[in-house]
Amino acid sequence: MRATLRxxxxxxxxxxxxxxxxxxxxxxxxxxxxxxxxxTQALAIVVNRSNPIDxxxxxxxxxxxxxxxxxxxxGHRVAIAMLDYGQPERRTxxxxxxxxxxxxxxxxxxxxxxxxxxxxxxxxLASPTIVRKFVFNAPxxxxxxxxxxxxxxxxxxxxxxxxxxxxxxxxxxxxxxPSKEP
Amino acid sequence: MKKRxxxxxxxxxxxxxxxxxxxxxxxxxxHLSIVxxxxxxxxxxxxxxxxxxxxxxxxxxxxxxxxxxxxxLLRIGDMQYEAQETRRSTLYALTTADGNQQVAYADQSRxxxxxxTQGIAQYLAEVRSDRExxxxxxxxxxxxxxxxxxxxxLGLILEGSPKEAVLLDLxxxxxxxxxxRRDLDDVKQSYDEQxxxxxxxxxxxxxxxxxxxxxxxxxxxxxxxxxxxxxxxxRVRSAEQLAQLQMDFVAAVxxxxxxxxxxxxxxxxxxxxxxxLNRDRLFEQGSVITDQASELMNIVEQVLLFSxxxxxxxAHSLRELRVNEVIEHALRSTQSLIKEAxxxxxxKIEPDLPPIIADLxxxxxxMQNLIVNAVKYSDAKRWVGISASRDWEKNExxxxxxxxxxxIEPSEVSRIFEPFYRSxxxxxxxxxxxGLGLSIARRSAEVFGGELTVSTEVGVGSVxxxxxxxxxxxxxxxxxxxxxxxxxxx
Lengths: 182, 490
What we know:
Chain A has five helices and eight strands. By secondary structure, chain A is an alpha/beta fold. Chain A has two domains: 1-30; 41-173, Periplasmic binding protein-like II (D-Maltodextrin-Binding Protein, domain 2), CATH 3.40.190. Chain B folds into two domains: 18-26 and 316-481, 2-Layer Sandwich (Heat Shock Protein 90), CATH 3.30.565; 34-223, Aspartate receptor, ligand-binding domain (Four Helix Bundle (Hemerythrin (Met), subunit A)), CATH 1.20.120. The relative contact order of chain B is 0.10. By secondary structure, chain B is of the alpha+beta class. The chains are: A alpha/beta, B alpha+beta. The A-B interface holds A 48, 76-79, 81, 119-120, 123-126, 130, 133-134, 137-141 and B 99-100, 102-103, 106-107, 110, 151-152, 154-155, 158-161.
């Protein structure tokens, strides 16, 4: 009985000490050891305005980007527009859609083209503006850009029925934009 | 010629023409050249106005041509270039696999096609005929068709299907672009035709202006030559007339001088040769000598008086004169002549005539010349009428000398006041004279602010009238009565 009380007393004291230490640290206001996380931004998937597709499931989107689906329902060949290397939007697409890193993506492309499963490699374009113009000029084009870069020349496709501004939209850029285009 | 009624003339009644010297005819004949030059100036001004109007229309046409056809041709040229640029940029995209470069070419193509579309819209907004409208609408349709093909070709290139893009362009793009090119050529041709028409209009206006200018120059040169010829001819004729008058004067004066000189010579010879044997014969020859010497003196005085009046060398002694006084003085001076010729003088002077201002000897000489002329040129009726009256309307004194003589031909009336002039009719009738009497008389009347007029009818007679202002009115005409040498004023 006495031993049981001693154990309870030690546990209680330890708990009180833990609480006190934690309160003390909280009152001292010491900086968090974790870096502040930048606000995320939605990544819009855009197609040519003549494209009849308005909504894609995430699975269909992944198949299109992986080259497993080559044509749209209207018969136009799918042309994928990728932003240039190292840009946050590209890294987001590689991570979220391809689920690969840059090297894995390159290896995948080489393999698929060598095997003849992919006929046309994705176009690598320098800026969101060029992506927008590419999608505007090519009826079968599909590309991506920050939701803030979208204008009326292209059409935003819903992913799983959600637009970039909707809650629970899957494609989010968790890196800051390197530079805002004019 | 002016008509003028003269009070106191009985035999020459109303209806006779009063000829006051045909000033208008003489002025016109003297200044014919000036009239011609004015005609030339007037004609040249008229032609210049026409030419200026043509030039103005020509300029307007050129401006219209430039703003319409030339600018239109320039626009069509730009559109042709931009259309080529549209197609060229599209096909350039085939030359690279770089997506960025392909997008840049697509941008160039779309910019160029935008300029073509804008040019077509401007052309359609400015069309002026149905033909142009049809050509513009066809161009717009064909251009739209081509752009659809261009969009497909561009899409295929960007999607990575160059082979399909080339096939589509060869299959449809080439033919559609040929339609566009043909349409642009049609529009260009319509502008060319417009420009040609306007150019033809300008050429026509220029040709017309040249013809008018040439005609104006020919007209001006012709009339200028005629005017110069008329001036020279007028001068030559004046010189010839002056020379003829001087010769006539010399002949007349010589003739007038020869008669008394011959008489004096004969009388002298008679005395020298002892033909005047007794006192009566001697007296007779002496009388001939004195009478003829007096005649000689009279002729010389006439010539000197004319010279003096012409050169305004006379110094007038102006004073108020009664009309009676002047006429009586003139009659006294010509009494011997009238008596010798056996003339009846009929004098009618209105009572209470106001005075005039003049120099008595000069004015009397004027009247004497008129009386002598009346005696000289009268026929067998031997009657001279002298009258004086007042023209209340003009407030003038009229002193007239009327004869029932041979009268004066209408064509001669304008010349009888010229110095030395003697009409062929008078010369033919062998009536002697120097031709200075009327010239001196008119000059004398003018010196005192008046004038001398004549009313005449051939075979009936003549009336010479001196018009002089009454004394109270003389101040208004004092400038005319002023003596140039003395400066005396009435």
